[in-house]
Specification:
Layout lengths: L3 E4 L5 E5 L4 E2 L6 H11 L9 E7 L5 H13 L2 E8 L5 H4 L9 H8 L6 E5 L2 E7 L11 E6 L13 H9 L1 E9 L4 H10 L2 E6 L6 E6 L2
Parallel strand pairs: 4-5, 4-8, 5-7, 8-9
Antiparallel strand pairs: 1-2, 2-3, 6-7, 9-11, 10-11
Helix pairs in contact: 1-2, 5-6
The structure holds S-adenosylmethionine.
Length: 215
């Protein structure tokens, strides 16, 4: 995939994929979107002190960076598993700087080998898996899922009941699934597999987002 760096409205970078005519984040602000959807509506809503997080679509590592940073206050014990079909080349990663966040920590997130558990600090274990979501077989249960694939109209094969059922089975009771898309077919597919679906206010530039809970 050919990628182009773009600066978004809050001055944070994202990547544009010409092949899909799709950005990795909202052009209204990459950091503001990730904070709103994944940290504020997701991570900050978890109650347990020891949690397993799954990220679908690791990409630039921004969600891991924001979670690690927020956890400096929360101090939860986190196991963070992230899957990615198309890991970014180091040349691209080196072009990304999320100002206001520790750049060394950002590089630390990208350094560990794939498929290996690595402690980034005493609270945070990262395991990145180079795999296609379609083939992925979770071997853990998660308390929080960041579903950050490309949009349903670009990758309809990833927003299906089959995929959501696999994730639902791997969600702990009271576990939270968050995503930026509030499309009707996404909400319906999540409901059909058993999640309780909530429509929340979206980040800047988007009316809604979704939080789904396993009761
Ligand atoms: C919207 S971007 C978000 C990336 C990331 N969360 C970030 O903050 O940079 C979607 C990500 O999903 C990845 N992806 C696309 N298809 C995938 C698949 N079938 N399995 C796993 N990851 C996939 C893309 O390569 C990309 O990194």
């Amino acid at each position: 995939m050919k990628l182009k760096k773009v600066i978004t409205a809050d001055n944070s970078p994202t990547l544009y994929v010409p092949e899909l005519d799709e950005h990795y984040h909202s052009v209204n602000g990459a950091i503001q979107e990730s904070m709103h959807v994944f940290i504020n509506a997701g991570f900050k809503q978890t109650e347990k002190n020891t949690i397993n997080i799954l990220e679908v679509g690791f990409g630039t590592g921004l969600n891991a960076l924001l979670t690690l940073t927020e956890n400096e206050t929360q101090k939860k014990d986190i196991y963070y598993e992230a899957i990615e079909k198309f890991p970014l080349d180091i040349e691209i990663i080196n072009q990304l700087e999320f100002k206001g966040f520790n750049y060394n920590v950002f590089l630390q997130i990208h350094k560990p080998e794939w498929e290996k558990e690595t402690y980034l600090n005493k609270y945070f274990v990262l395991k990145k898996l180079k795999t296609d979501l379609i083939d992925y077989e979770p071997n853990k249960k998660f308390d929080l899922i960041y579903f950050d694939a490309f949009a349903p109209d670009k990758q309809p094969e990833l927003w299906t009941e089959n995929i959501f059922e696999k994730l639902y089975k791997s969600t702990n009771t009271d576990g939270i699934f968050v995503t930026y898309s509030a499309k009707g077919i996404v909400k319906q597919a999540l409901r059909n597999v058993g999640y309780k679906v909530q429509r929340l206010d979206g980040p800047k530039g988007k009316r809604h987002m979704v939080r789904a809970i396993k009761r």
